Amino acid sequence: MLRRALRGLLAAPIIAALLITTAPSASAAQLTQVTNFGPNPSNLQMYLYVPNKVKPRPAVLVASHYCTGSGPAFYTNTEFARLADRYGFIVVYPSVTRASKCFDVASPQTLRHGGGSDSLGIVSMVRHVLQRNNADPNRVYATGHSSGAMMTNVLLGAYPDVFRGGAAFAGVPFACFATTNGSEWNSQCANGQLVKTPQQWGDLVRRAFPGYTGPKPRMQLWHGTNDDTLRYPNFGEAIKQWTNVAGIGQTPTSTDRPQPNWVRTRYNLGGAVQVEGISVQNGSHNFVVAGMAQYAVDFLGLSR
């Protein structure tokens, strides 16, 4: 089942031709592997990109790859390093070592604050950067595509004390993929058949870190209407979840079209955009194209 289900995700490397617009110059900083960065229960690899010029207290962006991908592949095939050069933030590229090359977004451990597995390993990477690179703990964010988008939801759900916001490209809500039998795949969720009330979705996040009363992460969600791998209903379910976590309603504050085939809905909290959903009309699972990363960076405040 997992092998068949992953076939749609195996196509993710085709985004390489769509995402990158210009190669880094010869004088650009290089991606480096970091070892011994802290607790790492699932043996993730850590790759780090620090631009030649960073801000005095740089922000940190975790950029998580798709299934079958890797940290170096996501570095090469996306715009985030180039945008880091422009705006002076640091990018962490986690890399899965298990056979599927998919992030663990399903186990009870990864879905619980301090529970273990991939989410804890990634938090260790962040803490390492905060300590070694004088980065700003109040400006830590996550993004990713497909499996990486699902991990983005996991990180914001289980570690709201670490991540202030995220941008998830073609993912599913936090805990939608939850399993207890060791499986990496949840067909009901992937097929868009797991439907809950906003309260139920929000409760899943709140139970991941009981007693947490700090700031709620901001979330930007992207999904193609023709996604046949992680189907489009997951987009609406994720909006339900993150608006409920923020304590705001389901009615958009505003709706517009930044591009002809995009419909963007925004949900404000205290006059600022807390949740943003961008529906890509006729977009497939691999809808991501050049320029979308800039929208994500702008939403997260990394361009300021």
UniProtKB/TrEMBL annotation:
Lineage: superkingdom: Bacteria
Q: Which residues form the signal peptide?
A: 1-28
Q: Does the keyword Transit peptide apply?
A: no
| Keyword Hydrolase in annotation | yes
The protein's UniProt keywords, in alphabetical order, are: Hydrolase, Signal
One CC-aspect GO term: extracellular region
GO function terms (MF aspect): hydrolase activity
Matching entries from InterPro entries are given as: AB_hydrolase_fold (IPR029058), Esterase_phb (IPR010126), Plant_Biomass_Hydrol_Est (IPR050955)
Against NCBIfam families, the record matches this protein to: esterase_phb (TIGR01840)
Name listed for the protein in its UniProt record: Esterase
Q: Which organism is it from?
A: Lentzea aerocolonigenes (Lechevalieria aerocolonigenes)
